[in-house]
Write a structure and sequence with these properties.
Protein name: Collagen-like protein
Oligomer: single chain
Keywords: Signal
Shape: globular
Structural class: mainly alpha
Strand content: under 5%
Radius of gyration: 22 Å
Organism: Zhongshania aquimaris
Amino acid sequence: MNKVFFNKGLLALTLSAGLVLTGCGGGSSGNRGGPSGGGGAEQPITNGFSEVEGPLDAVQQPLSEQVLAPIVAGAAGTPLEGPVSCVTSFIVTDVLDILDSILVNVDPATLQSDPAALFTDSAANFQATVTELAADLPVALASLAGESCTGGGAGGDSSDPLAALAGTPLAPLADALAPVLEMANGGGSGEAPSPSVLLTMLSDAFSEGIQTIRDQDPSGQIGGAPVLGGLLTTLDTALSDLAAAGLAFDDMDTDAASAALSVTLENLLNGLLIDVVPIGFIEEQADQGPVVSSQIQAATAALAGLLGGNFGELPGGGFENPADALFGPLSDTFLAGLQSALTDGLAGGGGGSNVGGFDALLEALAPLQALLSAGGGSGTGDGLTGTPLDLLLTPLVTALDGGAGSCPLAATPLSALCDVASTLTDAIGGGGGADLLTVLQGALTTLFGGLAP
């Protein structure tokens, strides 16, 4: 699983060990799956939020540091820590690096006069990132069964990571993906598939495996589990979206490529921010409607829209400001309460007898599911709403409502956000006369609507 290094004139790489997520096999430096120094020890599947320097680094970095790191930290010491770290790192790094391999070559000055140049200039980079994704996918999935989040050593370890899924509820994924990955590695008959064909085959196989898992899991224990269910669904959707992007790449169709990359980014952000970060699950348990997720969806749509329209809105300076506007409030407010909920909820999970396997991961999620379903500490009536939504809303109000005249944003261009806390507390303090759902939606529209690009 050695990394292909590109000529700097084509594409730069960044390996920032200081930005690595907690877990994922440790924090050692070096290339993914390659040698470090003079030794041939196994290395983590990723060393940072990105290995391809491109405009989406500004999205990958806050996803890793501000959004996903608290999830991993909240699961520290449980069987959930390594798998979540590994799979989320795979999604953020490998999936978005494929998009960056194209976006880094977008030149608005020549795109209209010579659109084919975008695809010819990106061909080698596109192939290398797709090859990397195919190599890393089985390692990421094996981490769900307790395997370390590493690639093969420099000596060319020929063991099959997917073998770890045998005997687990995820075995259908291994069965469906095995022949595709064998072809990708040059096995079987004929030549290895092209990058776009490989993406389509991976997507079809993954969807087939997921559907079999659902058919064999009528209780929804896996698909309905907070965090884990979101990981599998987000990855399934990402592979499907990448397959569409690959077809547009083959056709050298800039309009279709622009639309496909935009959809991929939007769906990935929604999957990570609503399903992996279990905001959707919390809303479902609170039975208050999509009061938070609907606003996230609006903000991610605006951000992804910068890729639409034949790349016409692609910001020359990158995505720094829109991305910061989206992730900053989540990191500073909602995720603080969520990390605490994860820590408290998972603390009671002993992992059972199968500490290194998939069963232990499901067991570790059980206390969290029970905590969120019951409202946890916020379901006693002491919180803003007395529902699991308080896990998201209480940190928001606490952050913005520091007392009369002391809102930390009062003297900034974001001073309008100070009204969010007072709107919520006034409505809740007013008794039953206010429609809580309407109040929350209005307040959060102010929060995200003012920050979305």
